[in-house]
Structure formats: structure tokens, C-alpha cells
Amino acid sequence: MLYLVSTPIGNLGDITQRALDTLKNADLVISEDTRKTGFLLKHFEIHKPQLSFREDNEERVLPKILEALRAGQNVALVTDAGTPSVSDPGFILVRSVIAEGLELTAIPGPTALIMAVILSGLPVNSFTFRGFSPHKGGPRRRFLEIDSQSPHTLIFYESPFRLLAFLEDALSVYGDRPAAVANDLTKLFETVQRGRLSELIEWVKANAPRGEYCVVIAGKEEIPAGSAKPVHRNKYENAASSGRGVD
């Protein structure tokens, strides 16, 4: 069986007992970077054979993984940090396993995008995860424009090298919306900076980015004709009138 095992996004204390048990019982551990995964396994005194599965070797390695699964081996897939298949090649493996009719399950755990959105202070009842944007300005702006009219909170991953350019393009596409930039989540120097996009741009200019970032941006506000203020709907209103509760 294939196990999609979530691992800590920074603080090793966040690993679950189920994740540890699964890794200890695995016949093979698959990851993008075997060095990073090796550090995790060594910390918890787990000694298992590893295999690297990346975009540049997936065609060569995928058949080996499927062969192991067909032979009845327990294979654990982990990512460098967080939940496998979220912005990593794990999706290719998952799709192939499903197509083969093989068994798979997930061991839940930390995910940076969820932690970022709940700490952002922006609406979490409906959001869209967009992952990493294109590296260059033109394609990146076109990528951002896809959601320019969306009312949903938007979540992106970004590298420290492109964070400033990303925020500047977001400002040009979305206007000066409320947003948040999260970094080093669960670590000693965890930071969540909140403000308008223009304010976050100035903050990034004054503070050299480092590490990977989660950027959370408010959706487009709904402003009815003749009104200068956005509409804020009360989610309890319909429940109160119908006598139903709200989860």
C-alpha cells in the first residue's frame, strides 16, 4: 500500500504518532530530497531504504515504485515539509497508483497553507490555493488575473527571491487588498505580517526575505451599486430565521 505521510513543516514536535508508526513499518520511503528526509528519519531513529522521486527523474523511478507496490510492499511517500502532493511531484505518483487500481491512504498532518490562512485574519470560509506562480512577470500577472474577480481568499506559495516581485504584481492586478505574508511557520522565528499589499511591499523592502513564504490575499469585495461600502453577510442570519444551527 502507498501511504501519503504528512511530516512537520518546521517543528519536529508536530509529527504524529501515526506518521512515526507508518514510517517505522514502511519497506521503502519515497521523497524529493533524501537528504532532508534522512535527517527526519535519523532524528526519530528510523532506518529505512529511501528513493528520490522528483520531476526530473519521475519517468525512470515511477515504474520501480509501482513494482514495489504490486509486490505488496508498504511504501511511504513524504515531502520535504508538510503534506505530500501539495505543490510537489507526489500527485503524479498518486494518479498512477489510482490508475493501477492499487491501494493508498493518507496520514494527515501539518500543511503550511492551512496554517497561513487561519493566521492571516482573512476569511477562511472559502479560499483558493494557487500554489507557486510563474517566475517571470508577464506569465505571473496573467496567472494572477485568473482570480482577479474571485470573492474567495487566495493563497500562494512564493520563494524569497521572487516575493517582492510577486507582491508588486499582485498589487497591480488586485489593487491594494488586505493580505498577509507568513514565514517560518511553527519555527522559533515564525512571522506573520498583515496589512495592505502596499504595506507588505514596504515591509519586504525593509526586511530581506529568507525561507519559503505563504502569501494570503483577500478576495474581491462585493460592492452593490450605489454603495461605497462592501457587503458583509452574517453567516448566522439564515440559520437564525430557519431555526437551524451553523457548524
TrEMBL record:
Subcellular location: Cytoplasm
Organism (species): Longilinea arvoryzae
PANTHER family reported for this sequence: RIBOSOMAL RNA SMALL SUBUNIT METHYLTRANSFERASE I (PTHR46111:SF1)
Record-linked CDD domains: RsmI
SUPFAM superfamilies: Tetrapyrrole methylase
Keywords: Cytoplasm, Methyltransferase, rRNA processing, S-adenosyl-L-methionine, Transferase
Top-level taxon of the source organism: Bacteria
Domain called Tetrapyrrole methylase: residue spans: 1-200
Main location: cytoplasm
One Pfam family named in its UniProt record: TP_methylase
Reaction(s) this enzyme catalyzes, per UniProt: cytidine(1402) in 16S rRNA + S-adenosyl-L-methionine = 2'-O-methylcytidine(1402) in 16S rRNA + S-adenosyl-L-homocysteine + H(+)
Annotated protein name in UniProt: Ribosomal RNA small subunit methyltransferase I
Protein family membership: Belongs to the methyltransferase superfamily. RsmI family.
GO CC annotation: cytoplasm
S-adenosyl-L-methionine recorded as keyword: yes
Function: Catalyzes the 2'-O-methylation of the ribose of cytidine 1402 (C1402) in 16S rRNA.
Region (Disordered): 227-247
Any one GO molecular-function label of the UniProt entry: rRNA (cytosine-2'-O-)-methyltransferase activity
Gene (name only): rsmI
EC number: 2.1.1.198
HAMAP family: 16SrRNA_methyltr_I
Keyword flag Methyltransferase: yes
